[in-house]
């Protein structure tokens, strides 16, 4: 499962964190028509990339600025199963 929290964190449980393939940065995208979040793990720091933090129970990305930019910061926790499509991780919310 992946949770999107009102504080702007994208939290991966231990199983979902495997989809990140130990990448330390991610690019984020938002599809307004499908209300879906796209996550692209990247190996190195790139412009507009967000750092991934790993912990014993999974991983998280601090993305409050991203959610505020698109005015999509959730009011309550949103949880859903991720979809892996090629190198992208997708999440409906």
| Number of helices, where a helix is a run of at least 4 consecutive DSSP H or I residues | 2
Count of DSSP strands? 9
What overall geometry do the principal axes of the alpha carbons give? globular
What structural class is derived from the secondary structure elements? Answer: mainly beta
Radius of gyration: 12 Å
| Major sheet attributes | 9 strands, antiparallel
How large a portion of the residues is in β-strands, by DSSP E?
over 45%
Tell me roughly what share of residues is in helical segments: 10-25%
Mean pLDDT: 95
Q: Give the neighbour order of strands across the main sheet.
A: 7-1-2-6-5-3-4-9-8
Low-confidence parts lasting 5 or more residues at pLDDT below 50?
Answer: none
Termini gap: 12 Å
Query: What sequence of helices (H) and strands (E) makes up the elements?
Result: EEHEEEEHEEE
Structure description:
- The chain has 2 helices and 9 strands.
- By secondary structure, it is mainly beta.
- The protein has a 9-stranded antiparallel β-sheet.
- β5 and β6 form a beta hairpin.
- The longest helix is centred in the last third of the chain and has 6 residues.
- The protein starts with a strand and ends with a strand.
- The model has no long low-confidence stretch (mean pLDDT 95).
């Amino acid at each position: 499962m992946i949770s999107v929290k009102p504080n702007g964190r994208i939290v991966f449980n231990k199983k979902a964190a495997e989809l990140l393939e130990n990448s330390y940065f991610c690019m984020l995208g938002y599809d307004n028509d499908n209300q879906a979040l796209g996550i692209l793990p990247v190996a190195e720091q790139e412009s507009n990339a967000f750092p991934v933090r790993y912990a014993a129970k999974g991983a998280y990305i601090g993305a409050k600025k991203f959610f505020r930019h698109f005015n999509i910061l959730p009011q309550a926790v949103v949880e859903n199963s991720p979809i892996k499509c090629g190198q992208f991780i997708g999440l409906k919310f």
